[in-house]
Amino acid sequence: MDTLAVTGITVDMLVKWQETLEEEILILDSRPFISYNEGHIVTATNVHCPPILKRRSGGFVALENIVPCGQKREKLENGEFRKIIVYDEDTTDLELSAKDSNLYSVLKSLRQQIDSIEVDELCYIKGGFKAFSRLYPQHCRCQSKLPTSCTLNVEPDNAHKQEAPVEILPFLYLGNFQDASNLELLHRLGITSLMNVSTKCKNLFEDDFTYMNIPVDDNPNADLAVWFPESNSFIDTVRENHGRVLVHCQAGVSRSATICLAYLMYTAKVGLETAFEHIKSRRSVISPNLNFMRQLESYEKEIKSQDGTLNTSVSDSSMDSSMDTSSNETASSSSSGLQSTSGSSISQGQVFGGGAFDFTFSPTFSSPNTPLLSPS
C-alpha cells in the first residue's frame, strides 16, 4: 500500500461516514482515559498511551496500544476498516500540534504500522471532541448531568465482576463485595483489614479483620473527598503494621477505586493521570463517576500546592524502599492469588522501540497529497 497522507476532516464528514459506512470506520480517541471516561464519541476506542510509554519509546506507540481491543485490532489487520479517524480534545490544525502530543504520536505511529493493511483514509477531526460534541451531542456518550443526550455512568450493582482483587501496592488491594465476602480468599491474600466504601455492603467477618466504613453512595452528589484524610490514615496504619488492606465497594469500579486513587496520589505524590494509569493497568474496569473525578482533580491541586512538583511515577518517590520492605515482610505469610498484579512501580510495562520516521500531512480531506510538514 502506498504511504497514506493524513487528512483533516470536519465533524460533518465524520457523521456522514457514521451514517453510511459505520462498519468500515475505526474511531480512536487519543486523549487520556480520564477525559475519555468523562465523554467520548460513541464507538470510539481509547488509545492506551501513558506518558511514560511515550517517553521511553521516543514517541512511538505500538498498534497493541493504539487499538487495545483485540477484536477491533484483528478487523483492522484484516482490512475490514477502510477509514481510521483519530481525535483529541480540540486540535484544529495538525501542523500546529505539538510533536509530543498524543494525537501526533498516534497518527505518526499508525502510518509506520499500517503499510501492509488496506486502509483508504487516515484522518483527524478538526476541532477534536470539543467541536464534535458541541455540534453532535447525540453521537456522544458522557458522564454529565447537563446534556439530555448524555447519561451519568454510575456503578452498577452486578457489573464488572473480576475473579479476584488486584494489588495496587504490596499492602493495598482493590476489589468488590464478592471478594470481601470470600473468607478463604482474604486469608490466602494475607488481608488483615478491609475498607468498606458503601452504604449497603455488610461487614461479614468483624471477628477476623479490622474494618473501616465509609458510608457513601455512588451518585452525582456524594462527597467522598471529605473521607480522604481518614482513609489515607487508615491505609498508612495498615502499612506501618505490615498488614494488607482490601478496599471495596459493591463492584470495585467507582467508590473504592476513588479511595485507592486518592491514597496513591497522597503517598506517592503523583498526579491523577499517573495514579489512574497505574490502577487501571491492574484493574481495567475502574470508572469513578464524574463527581468523584472532579473531587480527585481538586485533591491533586491540593497536593501540588503543598508539595510543589509532583512525581511522574511511583519509582520517582521515596516510598519504593518502604513498599519493598512491606512486600518482603508479608510475602511469607500469604500467596498472591491475584488476577492481575504488577508490583509496586507505576512505570513498569512493555517498552516498544521507535525512532524518527518521515511523516507528511495534508491540510484537508479533499487534497490528500499536499504535504504540510515532515517532522524529524
Automatic annotation (TrEMBL):
Cellular compartments per GO CC: cytoplasm; nucleus
Domain Tyrosine-protein phosphatase stretches: 164-305
Keyword flag ATP-binding: no
Domain named Tyrosine specific protein phosphatases: residues: 232-283
One GO term of the biological process aspect: negative regulation of MAPK cascade
A Pfam family this chain is assigned to: DSPc
Gene3D superfamilies: Protein tyrosine phosphatase superfamily (3.90.190.10), Rhodanese-like domain (3.40.250.10)
GO molecular function: MAP kinase tyrosine/serine/threonine phosphatase activity; protein serine/threonine phosphatase activity
Reactions accelerated catalytically: O-phospho-L-threonyl-[protein] + H2O = L-threonyl-[protein] + phosphate
Domain Rhodanese per the UniProt entry, residue ranges: 21-141
Stretches for region Disordered: 303-349
Biased amino acid composition, Low complexity: 312-349
UniProt keyword terms in alphabetical order: Hydrolase, Protein phosphatase
Family the UniProt entry places it in: Belongs to the protein-tyrosine phosphatase family. Non-receptor class dual specificity subfamily.
Protein's name according to its UniProt entry: Dual specificity protein phosphatase 4-like
Originating species: Crassostrea virginica (Eastern oyster)
Origin organism lineage: Eukaryota, Metazoa, Spiralia, Lophotrochozoa, Mollusca
